[in-house]
Recover the amino acids of this structure.
DNA sequence: ACCACCTTGCCACTGAGTGGCGATTGCTTT
DNA sequence: AAAGCAATCGCCACTCAGTGGCAAGGTGGT
């Protein structure tokens, strides 16, 4: 599933698939570079395809939309997250939310090939200033959450009508997005370990967010 | 702000604006009807504009996209929510999350003109089966959350670097979306009071979602 | 070496969204 | 009440994302 991570294991993919893979990576790399240098909207798909020397028809066989190529590193991580949730041993002692936290942390650490962190940084900043990309990103996250909910039901025997597992997933997504925001604001070179740190910090802030009260300054009360 | 709600107060809008308003409502009504009868994608804007007898140019002066006209009832409620958050008296005894809950409940009750509940039901179900609409909906919700965060900072004197208020807003959005889902599945005629009930139920499930544990059925552990 | 098939490239097409400009409509001032 | 003003509307032409069809080329198996 995680198209960029699992290269070492497996009986070596066929040549045809490796070619496809190289095209995909070239498209993502070039797209992120062009979209970052100029604007997302001002770069046409024709131009991107010219650079990579690929027809527009081929582009749409690899990605479903212009937005998707920009969010590929982000999507790859969510796919790895589903894999983790599916395969990770169950520990009945940990709460669902803790299990989810373990799975995201594990997922981001499987992405440690090449400069995934740099690409994720590019697409995070891109999403922050491009409505179309942000919308696509949130939609994809929603789809992933529904897939994860299925896994939770299957592996942890939960009531399908219970709102709590779904809320836990929504809270996970929210915390991770806050972590991405914090991480993308760091001035240093992006690393997976910093992202892990920021993710833990965001999770740690969750309980307090339910009980937090305001301080009601000199502002009039109505 | 809430384009559909505040009709009674105000010194009667100018005729020109009322005409504009009627065009807007005709577009929303017809769009929801057509999108529900057939598919969102199979209804072209040209067709919609023909029905309402409005040029496509005018459509785009009223709505920013094809998706927006379908989500107008939903967006109107969020705009009313911002208004409530802005004007509601502050009660230092209640937590931020409780304040937010009060504001959504109040917002949906201001929408009690005409059959807003029916329109909201249509667009909720539409969003559930149309990726483009769901994406737009989530993006709009994100923009609203950022606007609400500004209000919280201004009125409740919170630290701009504190993650907790933002997380509280994300959790609010998640709970409300769960409530919408539950509400849209009800077989009866949609009412605002049922939506309020489902919203309270979703909020009540939040604390439990942080501590919930699985039951680890006969499923193997790895 | 040959065949079957997957993949690619090209072409033409639909439909969303934008900008310009002249015409119309509602508001205002004298 | 008439004229002047500004906002709005409708029409036209255009760009660009995304899709389907079909022929040509490369790939894997025999």
């Amino acid at each position: 599933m995680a198209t960029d991570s699992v290269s070492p294991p497996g009986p070596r993919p066929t040549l045809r698939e490796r070619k496809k893979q190289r095209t995909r990576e070239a498209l993502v790399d070039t797209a992120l570079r062009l979209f970052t240098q100029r604007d997302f909207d001002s770069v046409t798909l024709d131009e991107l395809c010219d650079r990579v020397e690929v027809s527009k028809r081929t582009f749409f066989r690899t990605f479903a939309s212009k937005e998707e190529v920009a969010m590929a590193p982000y999507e790859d991580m969510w796919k790895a997250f589903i894999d983790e949730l599916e395969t990770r041993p169950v520990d009945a002692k940990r709460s669902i939310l803790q299990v989810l936290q373990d799975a995201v942390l594990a997922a981001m650490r499987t992405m440690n090939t090449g400069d995934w962190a740099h690409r994720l940084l590019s697409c995070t900043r891109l999403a922050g200033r491009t409505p179309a990309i942000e919308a696509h990103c949130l939609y994809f996250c929603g789809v992933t959450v529904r897939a994860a909910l299925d896994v939770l039901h299957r592996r942890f025997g939960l009531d399908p009508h219970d709102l709590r597992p779904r809320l836990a997933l929504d809270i996970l997504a929210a915390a991770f997005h806050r972590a991405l925001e914090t991480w993308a604001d760091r001035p240093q070179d992006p690393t997976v370990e910093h992202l892990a740190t920021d993710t833990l910090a965001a999770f740690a802030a969750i309980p307090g967010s339910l009980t937090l009260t305001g301080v009601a300054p000199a502002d009039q009360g109505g």
